[in-house]
Amino acid sequence: MHFSRTLKSAAFSCLGLGLLVGGTACSGSSDSGRATVPDSKEKGVELGHCEAASVDACGDFTTPTGTKIELGPYGAMMVPNVGEGFENAVAAGDADDGTRCQMFTASFKEDPALTAQLLDTRDLDFSRYTIYRPANWVDGEKYPVITWGNGTCAQPEGYGALLRYVASYGFVIIASNSRWVGGATEMLHGLDFLEAANEDSESPYYHRLDLEKIGAMGHSQGSAGTVNAAADPRVKEVILFNAGATAPKPFMAISGEMDITNYTPASMAMAVEAAPEAAYLFYHQVVGLGPLKGHLTLMLQPERVTEATGAWWRMRFNDDADARKVFVGASCTLCGRTAEFDFGEHGLD
Known about the structure:
Layout: E1 48-51, E2 58-62, E3 68-70, E4 76-82, H1 92-95, H2 99-106, H3 112-119, E5 129-134, E6 143-149, H4 160-167, E7 172-176, H5 185-198, E8 209-219, H6 221-229, E9 235-241, E10 251-256, H7 265-273, E11 278-283, H8 297-300, H9 306-318, H10 321-327, E12 341-346
Parallel strand pairs: 1-2, 6-7, 6-8, 8-9, 9-10, 10-11
Antiparallel strand pairs: 2-3, 4-5, 5-7, 11-12
Helix pairs in contact: 2-3, 4-9, 9-10
């Protein structure tokens, strides 16, 4: 990642935060077709074009592989290195000379240039958090909260397309910057920070958060952390990306071919059928170069996971009827697409 050497706060100025893509994009001043949320408490923030690195207000986002994803009506912003007073202990793997993560990421045998960018952390403060939130707040609305867990040796902007997409539909996501969150301590401490911010009259999150609607999701080691976070009574729903096929709260589990998990559609379906309320996605046609490329779908092809992820949270927390149609009903969006993925659900009607 490429943080500017001077930025260590929640400032909204442009910084060079590149992950999985070359270069930096902090545009947003010349694109046409911008949208704003009507009746915003503040003057509507114009929504421009973003790529990995941008802290501007985004109306659309171009993924590392060049796919443009249209964001939701609120737009989204990334706010890095927040959480003063709620810092976490820095893990040994984040404090060493980088050897551990170099060896780990090399095992995936993906594009060396992309891997090198993933490992270039520069000014990322591993003790703090990155927030993805709506670019436009609407007066009187409160927004559900989701805590995110990174995969081993990955950082929030490695999932920037997905996290912006979810935020742009009216969610606040707090992502620990730590690359070692399997125990869930950092993920839950992030919730502590937002609980305090919600009561801080000087915070931009003051009384904007719906703390009765808290979810968790994460990738790989972060998915294991999500399962552990689900034991916290504050966490009501979870999504598990590429690690874990069940959880103690309503869940959606996601895996695919050539994943490190070695799950199959049958094994995931069995876990879902045993749960009161759950769903699974198992991706086919995975892309990448290495033997475990199915483990990286949400990083290499985030456009494949945004729809289901965003719809899950809107269905579960906002009782959104259109989002429910993604999973259930005669016109179920995810049903019958077996060339792309296997899908199943239980108890969502």
